[in-house]
Amino acid sequence: MTKLSLLSSFLFFLILLTISATANCSKNESITFNPGIVKAPLVVIVTDEVIQNICYKTGDYNTCQHILNQFKGKTLFPKPLANVMAQVKRHAKTTAKKIVRVYDGMKDQHRFFEMRDAYRKCLKDYTDAMNELTKAEKSMADAKIKPVREYALNALNKVRSCDQELAKQWHEASGLTHDNKKFYDLSSILMVICGTLKMSIRID
Q1: pLDDT tens-digit readout, 92-104
Q2: Which residues contact 75 (CB under 8 A, 6 or more apart)?
Q3: Does this model's pTM top 0.90?
């Protein structure tokens, strides 16, 4: 049990380093778009009708509407999509840090062994999700909409894996399930926008 605990703690520490590195990279880097890539097929103007058509397909109509209302009269790509991407990634980082705080608050390793193990897995899931979102950002900078949606879906599945772990813990009371739901809702906005852009262009 002691060897397993030490190994788990070491792996947990490595994941923390990964999160810190990802956070530092995001602070120092911003998405740079090639001005030549925004061509006619990618130009979808944000109107009331477009907002309604997008938002009713998402998990959170009000949040979606609030975000897109800021971009009325502008193109759906790149700024609105980049804005949503930033919110999804920011929420993932905030949730990962919350998991660390909750984990550290469980001092009794024997009593909370199963719960701590679930949080370790969730932290890894969120770390993997952030890596997928970083890949999505790179594709977005190149106006490659199809892989953006695919990477976002991968990230969503990672967080869903966390939910499956939490479902096994009847006394989980950190509110992490609610955080996961918010991640789903924000991600759904991202993917519906990608779907709307995808319909406006032919993707091989």
Answers
A1: 999 999 999 999 9
A2: 38, 42, 43, 44, 45, 46
A3: no
